[in-house]
């Protein structure tokens, strides 16, 4: 745990070797990375955390101020505690936060991996109005359902990402966690929609970057991540066959292998000036 005046931040580390900071998405904690770390064994020093409002990480945002900078600040604190240049890996909204950290350049990164980031604002910036509207329509219905008292309104988000029936297929404990985390997830969407992205901004990312997406993911998510790879100079795009948004759990072996290959390739490159 990192203790700061603004609130605690989850911090756990395992193993030795090149340091990887693993950032979970919404409605999860650092524990979500266990299948990936198990695949890696003792090859890396893995640092896990949780985003604002999840696990032991205190919330710092409000509905009036949900700026992505609040998320970036806590992740930067984790990177500083880890020490040195780290490989930053983020899934879903955690990928969006990892991107914000890379853009801010307040901490040294050896590489960046973004998995299935919900980069809706990039879709809008690139004129992909139909796919942008898919995000907006889903969240508007989700927000309205929750405000109207629908206890499991967040199922709309999970089924958007993973396909119909995804939420219902989860164990009761996972569903209960997501339901309890709904107010925090709504703040996550405010943070995401408030994070303006453009090709010019993304062109300033100057670390080796891997973008991962699932072949079975929602078309809006697939396209948003393809655009990220096109706008970040030298970024590579890998599509995991048969996988959807929750590929950490369903395709852990392939995800772990792909990330490891990217990290080891980045280690061989000279550090930026």
Give a quick precis of the structure.
By secondary structure, the chain is of the alpha/beta class. The protein contains 13 helices and seven strands.
Tell me what you see in this structure.
The chain is α/β, with parallel strands linked by helices and 273 residues long. The protein has one domain: 3-Layer(aba) Sandwich (Rossmann fold), CATH 3.40.50. The protein contains 13 helices and 7 strands. The protein has helices at 34-40, 68-82, 93-104, 120-125, 129-147, 155-162, 166-169, 172-180, 182-193, 199-202, 219-231, 247-250, 252-267, and strands spanning 12-14, 19-23, 45-48, 86-91, 109-115, 209-214, 236-240. A 7-stranded mixed beta sheet has the order 1-3-2-4-5-6-7, sandwiched between helices. Helix 1 (34-40) crosses helix 13 (252-267), helix 2 (68-82) crosses helix 3 (93-104) and helix 5 (129-147) packs antiparallel against helix 6 (155-162). The two termini are 32 Å apart. The model has no long low-confidence stretch (mean pLDDT 95).
């Amino acid at each position: 745990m990192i203790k700061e005046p603004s609130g605690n931040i989850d911090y756990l580390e395992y193993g030795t070797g090149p340091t990887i900071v693993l950032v979970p998405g919404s409605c999860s904690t650092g524990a979500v990375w266990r299948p990936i770390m198990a695949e890696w064994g003792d090859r890396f020093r893995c640092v896990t955390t949780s985003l604002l409002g999840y696990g032991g990480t205190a919330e710092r945002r409000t509905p009036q101020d949900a700026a992505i900078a609040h998320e970036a600040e806590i992740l930067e604190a984790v990177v500083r505690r880890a020490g040195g240049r780290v490989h930053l890996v983020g899934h879903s909204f955690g990928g969006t936060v990892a991107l914000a950290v890379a853009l801010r350049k307040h901490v040294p990164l050896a590489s960046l991996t973004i998995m299935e980031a919900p980069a809706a604002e990039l879709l809008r910036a690139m004129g992909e109005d139909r796919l942008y509207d898919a995000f907006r329509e889903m969240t508007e219905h989700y927000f309205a359902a929750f405000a109207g008292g629908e206890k499991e309104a967040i199922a709309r988000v999970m089924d958007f990402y993973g396909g119909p029936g995804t939420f219902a297929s989860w164990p009761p404990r996972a569903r209960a966690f997501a339901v309890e985390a709904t107010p925090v997830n709504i703040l996550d969407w405010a943070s995401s929609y408030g994070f303006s992205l453009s090709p010019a901004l993304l062109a300033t990312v100057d670390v080796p970057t891997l973008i991962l997406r699932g072949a079975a993911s929602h078309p809006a998510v697939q396209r948003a991540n393809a655009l990220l790879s096109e706008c970040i100079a030298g970024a590579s795009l890998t599509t995991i066959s048969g996988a959807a948004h929750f590929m950490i759990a369903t395709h852990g072996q392939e995800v772990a292998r792909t990330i490891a290959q990217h990290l080891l390739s980045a280690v061989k490159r000279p550090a930026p000036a």
